[in-house]
Amino acid sequence: MLYHNDMSVCAAKVRNALHEKGIAWQGVRMDLRAGDVQKPEYVKLNPNQVVPTLVDRGRVIIESNVILEYIEDRWPGTVRLRPSSPADIAAMRLWMKQLDDGVHATIGTVSTSIAFRHQFLARPAPVLQAWYDNMVDEARRNRLRLAIEQGMESAQFSQAVKRLIRLLDDIERALADSLWLAGPNYSLADIAYSPYMIRMEHLGFGDLLAARPRIADWARRLYATPGYIAGVHGFMDPAYLTIFERERPAARQRINEIAAVPLAR
Known about the structure:
Layout: E1 2-4, H1 9-20, E2 27-29, H2 40-43, E3 53-56, E4 59-62, H3 64-74, H4 86-121, H5 125-133, H6 138-150, H7 155-174, H8 188-203, H9 206-210, H10 213-223, H11 226-231, H12 238-259
């Protein structure tokens, strides 16, 4: 059983891996805006109040990158998603570690500042406040509050965009040496990043992606994989895509303005 959300990037990469391996799965869709992940029965499964959560034979597995490796070990099958060499395995895990060490939170900041804030601001103030109050992660609560209240005008938005530009530069360099992030073969590292890449396109990073030819080619190959088509693209919510499309022109302009500033490394 997979507890997930259609547009969650973390849930998307887990669905991608399951479909890539041809694993049949059942899902429970969680409404993140309605606070489903804050309900006591879900918190018992995942105290972090996030998706996804995988329940397999009574065993609860949380944290999306951990779930990806669990899937690889639990269902080795004929499709291998972990590299064969120790060096490439290390590279795969370092790319995935970047997501956990800040890239995921950065995407959350950018997504909320550009698009999701409008959904929250449309809610009655007491309902929004209750959502804040029930969030266990104080740092996440403060980050999202700022993104909702100030949007692209907040200092954290500019910092987040610069972090993502640095990530794109790192990926472009890495792809000079191999077709995929962690060696010659498609792996969990590529799966882990695929929903983040399409999210950046949705949010207005298209010019920055197109300016990096290796990333542009890699993204086309990512989007053509069976796991991505079924597990990511197949779950795109039209309501969210409409918000992205509406907000993208202003976001694109702001992102390109920020990108013109030299980045400190």
